Amino acid sequence: MTHEVKGVVAKSKGEPVSIETIEVPNPGPGEVLIDVKACGVCHTDLHYREGAINDEFPFLLGHEASGLVEEVGEGVDDLTPGDFVILNWRAVCGHCRSCRRGRAWNCFATHNATQKMKLEGKELSPALGIGAFAEKTLVAAGQATKVNPAAKPEVAGLIGCGVMAGLGAAMNTGQVSRGDSVAVFGCGGVGDAAIEGSRLAGAHTIIAVDIDQTKLEWAKEFGATHIIDSSKVDPVEAIREITGGNGVDIAIEAIGLPVTYEQAFYSRDLAGTVVLVGVPNPEMRIELPMIEIFGRGGTLKSSWYGDCLPSRDFPMLIDLYLQERLELDRFVSETIALDEVEEAFHKMERGEVLRSVVVL
Ligand code: APR
Ligand code: ZN
Ligand code: ZN
Questions:
Q1: Which ligand is nearest to the CA of 99?
Q2: Which of the following CATH numbers is that of domain 2-160+327-359: 1.10.645.10, 3.40.50.720, 3.40.50.300, 3.90.180.10?
Q3: How does pLDDT run across 7-42, given as a tens digit for each residue?
Q4: CATH 3.60.15.10 fits 165-304, yes or no
Q5: Cα–Cα distance, 17 to 61 (Å, whole number)
């Protein structure tokens, strides 16, 4: 059986998205059909519709989602219809060379549903293998992680992408621990989540850096102990001043720009860590004196999806949220309907929101 449902589709490069009736197949072996409850609007969705990811139009957008399992395919034994799940875009395979070494968060062979969703008979490319700006979507079973259903869907969905990336950049990749000093460059949804993650992990000093005063005020609400407007002062100098002339233990870049990567690099203490979670474009270059890379010691890391392991991290983070130890409500700037995604892209471009979330 095929389900005909409404979905947000990007049909061609740069064109506004439209609501279409799409065809979603019943789950086959290893697949699950999800009744989508909420899905956040992320930069990556906009990048797809701008043709900046690839040319495989039409795209079914949306990937920061939560929902209820509606039906499970053959061989799926850890999910049952009615389970409340958060979707992820890295279903681990369990047998690639990284999984075999016990490093499943790095899985080099993640997978999605085998069957295709369609628009007028044409295969859709689901954003990040999910496609959740839709009433129903089809994913691989490993892309759905069961969490406590007491969490609000619009909040839970955010754990599936940007918020996880930021929390994980601090807690998993940066290994922030109690007493550490941290600087976070860029205070959008990802940077603010890195601030929250640092606070949760016990960081003593958390310095937020941005060029937008409103974002800096929001960053304080997430736990920044200091804020720096880098459009007015040199952030490297300001960070040294705050940290007794030393720099921070962990500097997290959550924008994806050469200039802020360099600032992060130089604002570190000796033997400190730089974490790059902002996604650069292929043209960007950085130039650093090699002696500084050697002489400062420490570690330069990238954070893929916050180096998360959904089965380990999603239920734990939702539990912390329900215990009011992790503030997630604040990330939801507004809830919107399916037909308001295009307008949400514009709000995102104007920097007015942390996250607009479609609620179904
Ligand atoms: N210096 C300091 N801050 C800057 C600069 C700069 N040169 N340029 C932009 N910013 C700030 C913006 O003011 C904004 O607050 O960076 C923040 C970026 O936030 P968003 O645009 O909301 O992006 P977000 O969703 O947080 O994602 C950040 O992480 O996962 C990646 O693809 C994602 O590359 C993106 C990054
Ligand atoms: Zn995303
Ligand atoms: Zn693997």
A1: 3
A2: 3.90.180.10
A3: 999 999 989 999 999 999 999 999 999 999 999 999
A4: no
A5: 9
